[in-house]
Design a protein that fits this description.
about 40% helix; alpha/beta; two-stranded antiparallel sheet; eight-stranded parallel beta barrel; 13 helices; globular
Length: about 375
């Protein structure tokens, strides 16, 4: 490795033992590792963010045949009447426990580039790889919300949006070098490694994912990551975002997978599911939304205008959502896959323990049949 700058990343594997390796769709869950889940409402089912609840959800995800589980990293909640996300678990530590409790599902932990030294992160994920027997993945978060990190003296003044990707590139290249080389020496702008060693090495390259959709974010993803999480208010937006991201990567000579998040609310009828959503809206936690807007760096109530993010949050759902019977959910998720180039979805439920068995019995088998993976010898088991 260069004495001054980390060298460009090595080529990433084509296969990770996922359906998307060979044309299928990857389906997993966003772990409910913070209280309140992804619904800003006093009327939502109680999710305490506890390890016991996450353990049950992870086992269910594996039992019904989902492909991955992923946990965010969160250090300060949004307040409000519900004290939304005030209690949250450590992402890599929780995923290590869940890796031990499962045997097949992929386990992806989140780390913020501005918080953890690359040598520490390299060791953490190599340990997760060993616990999981090669199922480890890393969700790289390059951005940050000032209040969340300033509280611990970890906000890097002067590191703006684009500069955070300079830092992140140096960070992830150092980690990859530590995963593959006996010793790493690198004197970069943000990190210094002197004859730095990190063993054991991962048994296989951990799956790398992030959520940067700006021009520099897509460039970072294309050069360093395996997948990108996108957001979109409707199918058309998702289709454009996925196509643009993949085209941007292709222009750089790379190929990336694209995912999005989706909250699923089941009802015995479509009308019943709509009633559940209306019940959530009736208990909307305005204070939690206010805290979220502060965390993101803007308060629409103060600047006097709405935006798409705020409008979506006012529905109480923090992500796009589908409501209805299992048959309706099948059709709506199928439409997403048919009209977009998305490689998978990370699912969220108001109550994971109640909804995962329904999804596994009534929805997942149909989606697997409609969007099959073509298993080949090139696919990693």
């Amino acid at each position: 490795m260069s004495q001054s700058q980390p060298r460009p990343a090595q080529a990433r594997p084509a296969g990770f033992g996922l359906p998307s390796d060979t044309g299928g769709r990857d389906l997993g869950i966003f772990m409910p590792m913070a209280n309140g889940g992804w619904i800003l409402s006093k009327n939502a089912p109680t999710l305490d963010g506890s390890y016991d609840y996450n353990l049950k959800a992870a086992k269910l995800a594996e039992d019904i045949g989902l492909d991955f589980i992923m946990a965010m990293a969160k250090y300060r909640g949004y307040g409000g009447e519900t004290e939304h996300w005030r209690a949250s678990l450590d992402s890599p530590m929780m995923m290590a426990g869940l890796a031990q409790a499962t045997s097949r599902v992929k386990v992806w932990a989140t780390v913020h580039t501005i918080l953890q030294n690359p040598a520490v992160t390299a060791k953490m994920i190599a340990t997760l790889d060993q616990i999981s027997h090669g199922r480890a993945g890393l969700n790289v978060v390059t951005g940050a919300y000032k209040g969340e990190f300033a509280q611990m003296g970890a906000w890097p003044e002067g590191v703006d949006h684009d500069e955070r990707y300079v830092l992140a590139t140096e960070w992830i290249r150092a980690i990859k070098a530590l995963w593959t080389q006996d010793s790493v020496t690198s004197h970069g702008k943000y990190f210094t490694l002197d004859d730095c060693m990190s063993d054991p090495k991962p048994s296989s390259p951990p799956f790398l994912v992030c959520a940067g959709t700006s021009k520099v974010g897509i460039e970072f993803t294309a050069n360093e990551m395996d997948a990108l999480f996108l957001s979109g208010g409707d199918v058309d937006e998702l289709a454009r975002a996925s196509a643009d991201a993949k085209a941007g990567a292709a222009a750089l000579g790379a190929k990336i997978r694209t995912y999005s998040m989706m909250t699923v609310v089941f009802g015995e009828t479509d009308a019943a599911a709509e009633e559940i959503a209306a019940h959530f809206r009736a208990g909307f936690d305005e204070g939690a939304l206010h805290g979220m807007m502060r965390a993101y760096g803007f308060l629409d109530s103060e600047i006097g205008k709405e935006n798409a993010f705020t409008q979506k949050a006012r529905s109480t759902f923090m992500t796009p959502h589908v409501l209805g019977t299992p048959d309706t959910v099948i059709e709506r998720l199928s439409t997403i896959f048919e009209k977009t180039s998305l490689d998978g979805l990370m699912l969220i439920f108001p109550d994971y323990l109640a909804s995962l068995p329904i999804f596994g019995e009534k929805v997942l088998p149909v989606l697997r049949e409609r969007f099959p993976a073509q298993m080949t010898e090139a696919t990693n088991a």
